[in-house]
Design a protein that fits this description.
Elements (H helix, E strand, L loop, with lengths): L5 E2 L1 H11 L7 E8 L5 E8 L6 E5 L2 E5 L11 E7 L2 E7 L5 E2 L5 E3 L1
Parallel strand pairs: 1-6, 2-5
Antiparallel strand pairs: 2-3, 3-9, 4-5, 6-7, 8-9
């Protein structure tokens, strides 16, 4: 059974900061594409909802996952990390058998 990904409060809070004062608030799209050094890569960008998206929402902020990417992100955790090397949205994916150092590429 596919479980939807979870979005942490920290990720929703960062998205709210990004959208603060924006005329047209954007949703955060998390998708999986073929490619990258390990076979698949995450594509994380600001976007608007499409009809077949799973919409995860909290406090008016939305995270989108398209139907094709959903099986790859089942039970994953979408988080926001602030480290010395920089701040970024990160995916903790239990389906990935390996990932690479860049943090955006994985295999299953």
């Amino acid at each position: 059974m596919l479980l939807p990904p979870k979005v942490t409060d920290r990720a929703f809070a960062r998205l709210a900061e990004i959208n603060d004062g924006a005329e047209m608030p954007q949703a955060l799209r998390v998708a999986v594409d073929g490619g990258g050094c390990s076979g698949f890569q995450y594509d994380i960008k600001l976007d608007q909802p499409e009809t077949d998206d799973l919409v995860l929402e909290k406090d008016g902020q939305k995270v989108l996952v398209d139907a094709v990417s959903l099986p790859f992100l089942s039970n994953a955790v979408i988080d926001f990390s602030e480290e010395l090397i920089g701040a970024r949205f990160v995916i903790e994916n239990p389906n990935a058998t390996s990932s690479c150092g860049c943090g955006t590429s994985f295999s299953m």
